[in-house]
Amino acid sequence: MPSPPVSDPVLARAGLPRPIVDVRGLRTHIVTRWGTVKAVDGVSFQVAEGETLGLVGESGSGKSMTCLSLLRLVPRPAARILGGEVWLDGEDLLAKSEREMRAIRGRRIGMILQDPMSSLNPVFSIGMQMREPVALYHGLRGSALAARAAELLAAVRIPAPAERLRAFPHQLSGGMRQRVVGAMAIAAPPRLLIADEPTTSLDLTIQSQYLGLLEELQDRHRLALVFVTHNLGIVARICDRVAVMYAGRIVEMGPVRRLFTRPAHPYTRALLESIPRLGTRATRLTAIEGQPPDLAHLPAGCAFAPRCPSVMERCRVEAPPETVVEAGHVTRCWLEAPARPGDSPGPGAGPAR
Amino acid sequence: MSALLEVEGVSKHFPVRQGLLGRSSGLVRAVDGVSFTIEAGTTFGLVGESGCGKTTTSKLILGLERPTAGAIRFQGENVLALDRAALARYRRSIQAVFQDPYASLDPRMRVGTIVAEPLVINERLDRSARRRRVLELLDLVSLPARAAELFPHEFSGGQRQRVAIARALALSPRLVVLDEPVSALDVSIRAQILNLLGDLQERLGVSYLFIAHDLAAVAHMSHTIAVMYLGQIVESGPAEAIALAPQHPYTQALFAAALPIDLDGPRPEVAVAGEVPSPLRPPAGCRFHPRCPHVMPVCSTDPPALRPHANRSVACHLY
Which residue has the higher pLDDT, B246 or B24? Predict the structure, then answer.
């Protein structure tokens, strides 16, 4: 068994504390009728205490499968975690037994999913569902249990929490339901909280309230937060660092400001340029050509090559290695690879607006 | 510019029936006294949160619902008073593209048949003329001719939405209702479709009623924007003016919550407390007053009218 990483050079240089979660070379494949899909193909990242990592990418890029792999909840038997390490506070989760994992899920890793209606049981009251994790993690019973459940609801800013415990999920609004899910996720409280598009089903003003709430909970419990989203506006608002995924790989990762102002990977740059900004009518959007990749039949070399404006011969043959652009900022692109220092960046490679 | 579609004081109230006898126990005022004009060849953006009446408004325009009150005029003619033949003509001039191209295309029909269907129903074309028109339409949305032989499942989301757009354009409509046309698509594909819609407008002079959650996309596409809250328009005017300097406290909150990706832009923290009240019992006075950060005594009693202010119309007692 490999020993836990003592210190990480990238994080140490960025002046960050030791990571709570440290994922190294994670590989999860799914066997389908159309072939094997490399849903997660060598993904590595760390998240430190109190830090928020945004996981960005289009559907099928492997964001959600990465999260499920951390919890070891990939849909079996089609999906298999084939390799890598997932360190949580110095313990490798991939080496744990299923029994040990059950004690970790919910208690040390919390999870909030996109649709609160499907994470809550419609036939049990909020109180019944809240009491389960609280009893499990804190061993409370009776009135102390009810009081703690009400406290948790109050912590996620639900008005009249004691009465809400008697309500059923359908009696709450979408925003309120997602708050209940949030309250259950922090019941332990966990060390790592994974939020998989938690605000996608919420309205704008409610989304804004919920993001504020998440930040507050993170500050209070010093959680490491992994926030999965395809909304770069949310990343700008709440994330410290961001990892951009494409076809199962992290193609670029770094501090949000750095990535947004000086993206190194053509995909990141194209994504940022393709998004309409307020008050810019009449200018054409810079569209990304082509279609999202067919995951069962990825091209050799870089998966983005068929759509890349700066594609070179080499990109179609060989997958680019991870390259450090600057301390804490890595990318997988031949334009940045050290082997070809003479390569000048392609057209339009200047810093984004 | 000339007015293509005028909506005047339109309301749609749905009775809520309860119990065995189906007695009416209340009215949902889904749309309540809404007026606006869509100019020929322009895009009119309608924004607001779920339940604000955007989709009901589009259904009234598409003729899928009849308004409880008010008038809708298309090229000067009252749509609600049309006879059968004229109504059929009206419906041909108004088409729609919906959010989810996985749900709006019949999985058992070939793309060529899907695009030809409006032609089969509405126009007497022989087989070869129809075929020519289908290929023309596919070309218009940048799909290859061989797409006609394929089924929807053989396409990605963005390509399916192109098929839906080709079908909507088959009868050369004057107005296309775009109800969240890119929300179901991958982020990297959205710009392609928005650009395509822009190009088509330029080439064909078609008008759009653009409904979306994504405020930046609406602001980008639209010439005029109206913001709805609980069935009423609270602010409307030129897209740029509204996006850059929203005046109504709700519009301000909405645009502040839209989370721009610019890191250095001003980030006004206009936090709106609470949630949208039930449209069954909308608050008295200004419907936004229970959540408004600038609420005054008058707001809870007198409903504000839309008044011209700063190059637009705003319904707020502040102005």
Answer: B246
| CA-based nearest residue in chain A for residue B263 | A236
Q: Give per-residue pLDDT as tens, B94-103.
A: 999 998 888 8
CA-based nearest residue to A284, from B194, B183, B216: B194
Q: How many CA atoms lie within 13 A of B216 on its CB side?
A: 20
For B26, the 3-state DSSP assignment is strand
Handedness of CA B311, B315, B316, B319 (dihedral sign): positive
Task: Judge whether B304 and B286 are in contact, CB under 8 Å.
Answer: yes
Q: Can you tell me the mean pLDDT for A285-295?
A: 84
Longest Cα–Cα distance in chain A? 70
CB contact under 8 A, A285 and B220: yes
Residues 135-194 of A with CB under 8 A from B: 173, 175-176
Min CA distance, B217 vs chain A (Å)? 6
Whether residue A190 has a cis bond before it, omega within 30° of 0:
no
Rounded CA-CA distance A201/B64 in Å is 26
**pTM: predicted TM-score of the whole model, two decimal places:** 0.85
With an 8 Å Cβ cutoff, is A256 touching chain B?
A: yes
φ/ψ bin of A142: left (φ > 0), alpha (ψ from -120 to 50), beta (otherwise): left
Across B58-94, b (16+ Cβ under 10 Å) vs e yields bbbbbeebebbebebbbeeeebeebeeeeeeebbbbb
- Give rounded-to-5 percent helix, strand, coil for chain B: 35, 25, 40
Q: Please check whether residue B239 is in contact with residue B223, taking contact to mean a CB–CB distance below 8 angstroms.
A: yes
Q: Do B272 and A208 touch (CB under 8 A)?
A: yes
Instruction: Name, in order, each residue with C-beta under 8 angstroms of A239's C-beta and a sequence gap of 6 or more.
Output: A52, A53, A54, A227, A256
Cα–Cα distance for residue pair B246/B272, rounded to 1 Å: 15
Measured distance CA(A330)–CA(A10) in Å, rounded: 9
Distance from CA of A26 to the nearest CA of B (A): 25
Conformational region of residue B173, where left means phi above 0, alpha means psi within -120 to 50, and beta covers everything else: beta
Task: Let me know: does B226 contact B42? Beta carbons within 8 Å.
Answer: no
Looking at the DSSP bridge assignments, the partners of residue A32 are A35
Probe site for chain B from A204, A206, A242, A295 (most B CB atoms < 10 A): A204
Q: Which residues of A touch B244 (CB under 8 A)?
A: 278-279
Is-contact B226 B44, C-beta < 8 A? Answer: yes
ipTM of the complex: 0.81
Among B2, B39, B60, smallest CA distance to B201 is for B39
Domains annotated on chain B, with CATH: 3-314 (3.40.50.300)
Identity at A298, one-letter amino acid code: L
Could you tell me how many CB contacts below 8 A there are between chain A and chain B?
127
Minimum CA–CA partner of A279 in chain B: B240
Strands B207-211 and B43-47: parallel
Task: Say if strands A329-332 and A322-326 run parallel, antiparallel, or are unpaired.
Answer: antiparallel
A203-252 residue pLDDT tens: 888 888 889 888 988 999 999 999 999 889 899 989 999 999 999 999 99
Contact residues, chain B, for A230 at CB < 8 Å: 186-187
Residue B313: Cβ-neighbour burial (10 angstroms; 0-12, 13-18, 19+): buried
Contact B263 A291 (CB under 8 A): no
